[in-house]
Amino acid sequence: MTSRNFTVDIHTHILPRDIPNFRERFGYGGFISLDHHMPSCARMMKDETFFREVGANCWDPSVRLLDCEQHSVDVQVLSTVPVMFSYWAKPKDTLEVARFINDHIAEICVKQPKRFVGLGTVPMQSPELAIQELRRCKEIGLKGIEIGTHVNDWNLDAPELFPFFEACQDLDMAVFVHPWDMMAKEKMPKYWLPWLVGMPAESSLAICSLIFGGVFERLPNLRIAIAHGGGSFPATLGRIKHGFDVRPDLVAIDNPVSPEKYLGQFWLDSLVHDQKMLDHIVEMVGENRVALGTDYPFPLGELEPGKLIGSMPWSEERKGKLLHGAALEWLNLDLQQFL
Fold first, then answer.
1. Domain limits, the chain
2. For strand 144-148 and strand 116-120, is the pairing parallel, antiparallel, or unpaired?
3. Angle 275-285/233-246 helices, nearest 10 degrees?
4. How far apart are CA 194 and CA 188, in angstroms?
5. How many CA atoms lie within 13 A of 221 on its CB side?
6. HSE on the CB side for 265, CA within 13 Å?
């Protein structure tokens, strides 16, 4: 192995094998549990409603490591499955769920520090509690936080959320923004459209909110990565920029700076499933701002980690930046600690 082909996957999800009965504990429903109905296979259940089927690679680190060996992935960045965010719940209950998840991820990372890096989750509906748990995440060794593309009725430009982003910058904690609770679900009852249409729109919503709300402007050292290659944002940047130019009275009301200024200030993962789009986002934000992301272990992700990057007609140096360089810069980690 050389440093050039060292591989860090910033977008993987994990669950504890045994999730407490939060419905019973808190006295109301909506939380996820795992029904281990057969060996190495479980149903994710939201109360009595089936959510999705998952395998042992979703909760067993040893199975994940076997997959990593097969796919030549050296380091996985672990984050929870977004449905576990629980922003809709009572803040004190979401905090308890978050602490349980974060302790689980931290324990895995302590046992395999050269193979796993952890991101926590926090009760974003209560920024004060979110900052409290953010500090604890840093204390237990997590390197950042995964958040949703919105928090209930707040988009990421909400003034209430700014102190949290400021704390992430001050504490040197990376932020990974992942779609969840997709918009307009009632308009998309068929064809898996919330995942195919809603998710890309959610990522663009998050980026535009952070740009136009002035979060990137006011916090230039905040390290944010957006899942799924930024969703629909890269393909619609021209429209977004044109809207800013022709209707500043509607668009530039909180930040008078053109959105193009912030290209290269945030990271995207490489999960775009298309050579032309991967080339586009690298040219748009820079080769040091696109990091391998697979959405492991879910089927909408890249099933052979790094295959798309490897297929590109690029130098080994550029491929190395996408396979690990951009990820390590986002996490503020040094390659030598993993070699």
1. 3-14+61-337
2. parallel
3. 50
4. 6
5. 9
6. 17
Residue whose tokens read 């604890």: 136
For every residue of 35-77, DSSP letters joined together read EEEETTEEEEEETTEEEEEEEGGGT-HHHHHHHHHHHT--EEE
Q: Mind listing the pLDDT tens digit for each residue in 282-323?
A: 999 999 999 999 999 999 999 999 999 999 999 999 999 999
* Euclidean distance between CA atoms 184 and 163, whole angstroms: 29
Residues 6+ positions from 4 with CB-CB distance below 8 Å: 316, 317, 319, 320, 323
150: its two tokens: 């919105």
Question: What torsion do the CA atoms of 312, 313, 316, 320 make, to the nearest 10 degrees?
Answer: -30
CA–CA dist 261, 115 (Å, integer):
35
Is the CA virtual torsion 45, 50, 55, 57 positive or negative? Answer: negative
Query: pLDDT tens digits, residue range 147-190?
Result: 999 999 999 999 999 999 999 999 999 999 999 999 999 999 99
Residue with tokens 């629980």: 86
Q: What is the pTM of this model?
A: 0.97
Q: For domain 3-14+61-337, which CATH number applies: 3.20.20.140, 3.40.50.920, 3.40.830.10, 3.10.180.10?
A: 3.20.20.140
